[in-house]
Amino acid sequence: MFLYTKYFIRLGEGWFMASRVSRLTLVRVAVVYFPLLVGLAFTAVGVGDFLELSRGRPAAALPYYGVLPFASREFSAERVAFVVESVSLEGGYAD
Amino acid sequence: MTFGLQVPNRVELAFFKVHGVDEEKNDVYYTGDASVEWMPDRGVSLLSYSLKPVSKYSQFIVMASFRWYGVVERVSYTSYELLIPFSNSDSVALTAARPDAVTLGETPFVSLIVDLPFDSRVTEAVPQPIGETIYWRNETLGHRSLVMEGYVPFGSPYGYSQLQSFRVGFEVPSLRQRYDRLMFDSGLFLGVGVQFLIAGLYDAIKLREK
After folding, report:
1. Which of A25, B74, B118, B188 fits a 20 to 30 Å CA distance from B147?
2. pLDDT band per the 50, 70, 90 thresholds, residue A61
3. A46 → closest Cβ in B88, B113, B193
4. Is B102 within 8 Å of A63 when comparing Cβ atoms?
């Protein structure tokens, strides 16, 4: 990192000589603050993506009770039909 | 007379349509009182509809429509599972709230039609679907309809829970693309970011020592 950035420092040195920015400040910005800033930003984005991938999901619990038709008196059914007309992936429900 | 349905998990927006025949055997649509009872301690919803029969013919067609939460589980980043269990247990949840309820205690023919998003891909289905129909309207609107059938025993009063279930597992290809991109991005950003962090810290220490 230091090897790459020293050329940049030398190029900009003449320009900054006229200003009040000291060479040490320029070196600090180039080899310390810039890599730290970029490192923090990239790491944060990478961790964010990784967390989204590995976002914990509750283990699917097996149901204990099931679907059961009932009535107020004895009855029989020749046919029972269920139609799932739409599925909401985000909401986790079906209509 | 009351008809009802025990449904695992929470149910909302429920309504019933009931029709039968009158003395002249003409179709009659009933108006009655519908109720939805959520039992959070047991995780069960009870839907019921009370009506007053208008004829001696006790044949009804009962349709219950509802929004069923928890029936679709996300099992991985890209795949989902729709599970519909049918009760062959002692149904304690129902009898605790409705002691006088009579359950359907036979083995009727059950069919399940599942309309899935058009861009989904079915990975498994139990029982095996007997057919699939693709409804195509335009490039963004359409769905595929799976038909599953089987005989299901309901409401045996003895023994442990035996929930014969219909299950559909499916994957969403657009999520697969996003998953691949996130995998690549996280590796790239972490690789570059951590390297820069280490370099910056190393140079900071080095400068401090000078």
Report:
1. B74
2. confident
3. B193
4. no
In this prediction, residues A7-34 reach a mean pLDDT of 72
pLDDT for position A40 = 93
> Nearest residue of B to residue A89 by CA position?
B72
CB pairs under 8 A between A and B: 249
Q: Could you read off the pLDDT of B87-134 as tens digits, one per residue?
A: 876 667 888 888 888 888 788 899 999 998 888 889 999 899 998 888
pLDDT in the model for residue B169 = 92
User: In whole angstroms, what is the distance from residue B16 CA to residue B171 CA?
Assistant: 32
Report residue A93 CA to chain centroid gap: 24
Contact status, residue B137 vs residue B115, Cβ threshold 8 Å? no
Contact in structure between B4 and B46 (CB atoms under 8 Å)? yes
**Which residues of chain B does A1 touch, with a Cβ-Cβ cutoff of 8 Å?**
196, 199-200, 202-203
Q: What are the chain A neighbours of B84 within 8 Å (beta carbons)?
A: 67, 82
ipTM value of the model? 0.80
Q: Is the pLDDT of residue A1 over 60?
A: no
Report domain extents, chain B: 1-69, 71-171
Chain B residues inside the 8 Å CB shell of A50: 186, 190
Least Cα distance to A86 among B149, B142, B110, B137 occurs for B142
CB distance B93–A57 less than 8 Å?
Answer: no
